[in-house]
Fold this protein.
Amino acid sequence: MTELICIGCPRGCHLHVDEENDYKVTGNSCNIGAEYGRNELINPTRTLTTTIRLSGGNHHSLPVRSAHPIPKKLLFEAMEVLNHREVKAPVKCGDVVYADILNTGIDIVATRDLD
Amino acid sequence: MFDVIIIGGGPAGLAAAKKCYDEGLEKILIVERDTQLGGILNQCIHTGFGLGVFKEELSGPEFAHKYIEMLRDTRVEVMLDTMVLEINRDKEVTVINGNGYQKLQAKAIILAMGCRERSRGAIATPGSRGAGVYTAGAAQRYINIDGYMVGKRVVILGSGDIGLIMARRMTLEGAEVLACVEINPYSGGLPRNIVQCLNDFNIPLYLSHTITKIEGENRVERVTIAKVDEHFQPIEGTEIVFDCDTVLLSIGLIPENELSKVAGIELDKRTKGPIVYENMETSVEGIFACGNVVHVHDLADNVAMEAEKAAVGVCEYLKGRKSEGSVDVTTYEMIGYTVPQHIHLPLDKNKYDFFFRVRKIFGPSVIYVIDSEENVLARFNRQYIIPGTMEKITVPKVLLEKGKGNLKVLIEEK
């Protein structure tokens, strides 16, 4: 049995995950917790948010995120890749600024408009 | 003449403007001192926003973007790069910008100025005054907006959410975060942020500890922390020394009420924000307030919902709603404050929300709402209540109607 705090929403439910019983989750208030508890022990993932360089605009850095959570163990590697990425203004919120990061099938997208 | 002037274009101001527009107000103006809308959301590039309002997890800029898009094709006017100098009881708003000094007249005002960070001076950290000491929010702006890295080896004082978020952010950007130091025996941040910002990166959280010395003449070089006793006094012999170049302060937020004070709006010493009624009206008729200018929230979603309440309050006020007195909402020492602090009579809403923070960690507990004759009007069970999370209870009108005199909110551990 592993105890976890759910990070799915600000409520922060105290979860119990039973590894010996097909990762059954108790203590959750919703389905997000059931899914999080199971994933966290099998393949933990996180949404990556960071900034990348922007040229030709009024701002120098563009906030971006992974469109979906990526494996937690790839966070630093993904940062390394994105630190070398530069895009040109203008950018629209939702634009893909780096496709299929580290072969995860997940895109990195802009999270605001910047001219 | 504006129907309503909204001061501040962050989450509170944006959500208030949207709701005022949806409710049919014609002349709405947002006054914002920055050159863009969004307020602090622009530098909060992490996710965790939007679950309450939009039912999806968004980053701060995305949350702002949704509102900015919704307001784009409306009649809502926006004045950017404009500072409000003064407001008064007659709803006159004095502003200054590139076009000069102007007086604008409104029928109602919504205060949505947000809050600011407590700084090093507020807690008198001992030590020298080298460079490298930042409030967590200032560091967040340098990194996320301006693109400057603020340090390489970091100690964070305080465990508020911004400090926790910055611990993760600095780590991802290649800094080493050596410690997060919290004087209280509990963290002031959300539990999810302890998990995903500290535990994920093996950053130690030192509870019941504080910084006792910051050394370094030109730049921070060394920080000493020590365990504190129950009176928050450092205990000799418990010192730990960290070689570091940066200290981030995440030691609380203070509602920004300089304008409110000048207008003669009554403030609550506990929240440091305006005293408000259930419709977010302040002690001055026709001036409403919402978001972190009233009390510091954990979540922008809660700010937006409070802003909508203020917007509805403005609309009712403009339609000529009149109240006949009010009752007070009081509390006791284990609850820091309640918002609202008063409720207008007659009771004309179907339900009434009360927000508060506790001053210690409670296990399984019951929250009571009692009247002046100590009759229990409503009770709510909770598994745990922590100071880091704002608590909300919703009491139906039918229960409040049974009460006599003022209300009181209490907690009892089971």
